C-alpha cells in the first residue's frame, strides 16, 4: 500500500509531497486512512519555525525538540485499514477521531491519564508525524475515539480546538461557571468553540472580548451574551461592569501580553485567569497582587484522555458546537478548523 504525505522540510517554505510505502502496523499499532485533517494555528507557528515569547525573543523549533522533516496535522479523523496483532478494540472499517496528545505511556503522569502533560511528548503532527497525509500510524487503540454520527470534517477539530476549549472550561469550578459570568478573550476558532461549549456546560453568561467587530457578531451568534472591544479605552471598565464588579473567571484564547494583562486587571478578588493562547508576549505583575487579590493565574494545554472522552460524550448528547469552517488556499491563510481532505490535497487546494 502506497501513501503520500505533505511535509515541512524547510520552515516557511511550501510543503513537500513525499510518496512511500505505508507502514505495516506492529504490536498494538493501528493504521488509519485519513478522512479529514484540521488546520490549527499552532501549525503556523511550527511552519514559521518559532514561537514569539516576548521582548523580541523567540522559542525555536529545536528548543522544543521538534525536528524536520515533519508531517504536521494533529486534528485527524480516519478509517481503520490495518491493525497490529495486539491492537485490541480496533476493527477494520472503524471511523475514529485520534487524540494526538500522546506521552510516553509509562510515567506516572501518563498512567493517570494526563498524557498531554508528559515531559516525553510524542504529540502527533508536532513531535511525530501527523495527518497531513493519506495514512497515519497510531501507536495504540486507546487514542482512538468513536465519533458516532458526527461527520469526519466536523469532528476533526475536536481533537485540538474542541478539547483545548473544553479542558480550559473544566478548570473553572462548575458552580462558578453556572453562577457567574465567564469572560472569553479571543473570538477565533478556539474562542468560539469555548463559547458554545461553555453554554453546553451550563454557563449562565458568556462575555466575549475581541478587537474585531466581525468576531463580536460571531461570538454573539455562538451564544455569548455580549461582546466587548478589547481595544476600547474603557475595555476594562466594560468587563468589570458586565461581570458585576470583576470577573471570577477569564479564559484567554489569545495569550498576548496585552490580553493577559487585561485578563488579570479585570479579575475580582479570588478570581482566576486561564491562559490558553500562544500568541506570545510578556507581562509584569507585582507579586504582592497574587496573595492580596487571592488570584490564580494558570495555563491550560490541550486536554487529557479523560477530557477527550467527556467532550465526545457531551457532543453526542447535545450536538456539535456551531463553529463554521473557512477554506484555506495557502499556509499563510490557514486558520483553525479549516478542513483539508486528501481529495482537496490532490487538487492542490491545501
Quick tags:
single chain; 350 residues; six-stranded antiparallel sheet; six-stranded parallel sheet; 13 helices; 17 strands; globular; disordered C terminus
**What is the chain-wise order of helices and strands?**
EEEHEEHEEEHEEHHHEHEHEHEHEHEHEH
Strand content: 25-35%
End-to-end gap = 23 Å
Largest sheet: 6 strands, antiparallel
Q: Residue share in helices?
A: 25-40%
What number is the mean pLDDT? 91
In DSSP terms, counting alpha (H) and pi (I) runs of 4 or more, how many helices? 13
Per DSSP E runs of 2 or more residues, the count of β-strands stands at 17
Structural class from helices and strands?
alpha/beta
Shape: globular
Unreliable segments of 5+ consecutive residues: 325-350
Radius of gyration: 20 Å
Can you tell me about this structure?
This protein has 350 residues and is an alpha/beta fold. It has 13 helices and 17 strands. The strands form four sheets. Strands 3, 7, 8, 9, 10 and 17 form a six-stranded antiparallel sheet that branches. Strands 13-12-11-14-15-16 form a six-stranded parallel sheet, with helices on both faces. β14, α10 (257-265) and β15 form a beta-alpha-beta unit. α5 (161-170) crosses α7 (189-200). The longest helix is centred in the last third of the chain and has 14 residues, at 305-318. It is globular and about 60 Å long. 45% of the residues are buried. Residues 325-350 have low confidence and may be disordered.
Task: Briefly summarize what is shown.
With 350 residues, the protein is α/β, with parallel strands linked by helices. The protein has helices at 41-48, 61-64, 108-111, 152-155, 161-170, 174-179, 189-200, 213-222, 235-242, 257-265, 289-292, 305-318, 342-346; strands at residues 2-8, 16-21, 30-39, 50-54, 57-60, 70-71, 75-83, 95-98, 135-138, 144-146, 182-185, 206-210, 226-229, 247-252, 267-275, 296-299, 338-340.
